[in-house]
Amino acid sequence: MNKEVVTPVFTLTGIAVVMAFILATVNRLTSEPINKAKNNQELEAIAMVTGEFDNDPFAEKADIYTPDKKQKFTMYPARQEGRLNAVAIKSYTNTGFGGKIEVMTGFNTDGSIKTFKIITSNETPGLGSKTDEPKFKEQLNGFNPAKQILKVKQDGGDVDAVTAATISSRAVLRAIERAFAALQNFNKRDENE
To answer: What range defines the domain where residue 93 resides?
Structure first.
């Protein structure tokens, strides 16, 4: 073979192998801290939406499904002295103005909403991001989706949308509504067993 072709091929192959090794090493070194930070963020969100607990919600987490079995969410029970006080459900929707929104919602044992926390969102700062502020959130404290309509008032519901952020408001409520539907489906399954 021609030396002008072989030398660059071997050089590029060597560089590619070294770079692959470096990337694999960096990935191995950073994956555990990244996962730990993500778990800590979720644990903080669980505590924020359920209140105090003395169990390990991660050890007791369960996958729950919407009635049509199309969406799977994660439920974290919050117990105090062995008694279930609340559950946190991590759900999502892709209907936000900026795309996907992940929400951690706390539900009391009667199915009413304790509160919620937006975990990830690409909503517009100063507009759609206001759905995670007290003015919007406090409307849902004690809100029972089984007895009230979990939609914005423009859609015939009982919740005031954030001004100039109706799409974001609808999306957050949709994520919470899906979490509630999955919780109801889970509770029905338990009753039938």
So the answer is: 50-192
Secondary structure (DSSP) of the chain: --HHHHHHHHHHHHHHHHHHHHHHHHHHHHHHHHHHHHHHHHHHHHHHHH----S-TTTT-EEEE-TTS--EEEEEEEEETTEEEEEEEEEEEEEETTEEEEEEEEEETTS-EEEEEEEE--PPTTTGGGGGSHHHHGGGTT--TTTS--SBGGGT-SBPPPTT-HHHHHHHHHHHHHHHHHHHHHHHHHHH-
Q: Is residue 10 part of a domain?
A: no
The answer to the question of residue 6 being in a domain is: no
Instruction: Tell me how many domains the chain contains.
Output: 1
pTM: 0.79
Segment 119-169, tens digit of pLDDT: 988 887 777 788 988 999 999 999 999 999 999 999 999 999 998 889 999
pLDDT digits (tens, 9 = 90+) for 35-58: 887 778 888 999 999 998 999 998
